[in-house]
Design goal:
single chain; 387 residues; alpha/beta; Urease, subunit C, domain 1; TIM Barrel; 2 domains; 9-stranded parallel sheet; 4-stranded mixed sheet; 22 strands; globular
Length: 387
Amino acid sequence: MRNLINIRIPGPLDNSLIEKLWCIEVNENDEICSLKPMTCLQGIPIKGEDWYGDWLSPRGIDLQINGGLGLSFTDLNFEQLPQLNALLDLLWIDGVEAIAPTLVSCSVSSLRNALMVFREAREQSSKTRCKLLGAHIEGPFLSPTYKGAHELDQLCLPSLHALHERIRGFEKEISLFTLAPELKGSIEVIRKLKELGILISLGHSAANSEECIDAFDLGVSMITHCFNAMPELNHREPGPVGAALLKDEIAMGLIADGVHVHPKVALILHKLAANQLFLVSDALAPYGLQENYFKWDQRFVFIKEGSCRLEDGTLAGSTLPLLDGCKKLTNWTGDPSSAIWAATVSPRLLLQKGKKIQDFFIGRSLKELLRWQFHLESNLLNWNPAG
């Protein structure tokens, strides 16, 4: 056994954890056996490897990622399994432990085929490969007014028939479903998704604040890419973001590339609701490639500084690694603990209700975890594998 001392554990705010520094006991296999506050050890002589206040965290969880290394998840076929595994290997190297592969509005056959490929890919999982969680179905029950980069002819009104047509047989392999709750037929779909244990998120929606609050009361528990593809936060009509800010339990996804949401707006959101934030990449097929433009279905996306746009200027996603979003959010807020928490712990708490942060460390190997260092003078955050 050996000890690692003076370790920080991330939280949504600097003062969110009563205990600031921790001592971790690891066994001969570098697996964590215990996690104790340093204050509990006062007066007890203890020796160990001093981390000098560096953070220890799980790897990232990305709940919205559309592809990478040239793959678009909606166009997956079984011949691309090696390419999909290569992407999952890259994501592990980029510090991501698991993703909810996101399927944007597409044909029923394309969606179901992708779900079958994901099922096969899960059978090829390994300890050093990013894992596939249940899919994130983003559409087709979206507002035409706020469709963003989704193709208009793939959208449809929500109904139990349309839902079952798409997810029948894969119900336990779906983690998250994004829809516009103001659409006719959405109430029945929300109730069914809740019954199935699938997280429901508001996105690509024209809902006003009252419609949002009704949806939250019904079972919608998240907002997909906060501020994007939805009405603005306005002093006369709060919209989805304003409604979520009034409900502490509603999680808000943030694409922290500095383009989808202005850094100062992200800072305001952090000041108001750091405990509600979780980071997503919203990465597209060109993630991991050095490309300036890329063919996406029958359209082209143009890439500049990690953000993707269609030819008409519509934002379509990013190529930004999830943990680069941590670095950017830290730079904007000066709060590394909160940024780390938003990409590594917050998504876990969404997926595993009732867990405590210690539950994400005990029994884990340091090789599976991340060590973060913050340089106060430069306001820069960096990470490396912890073991």
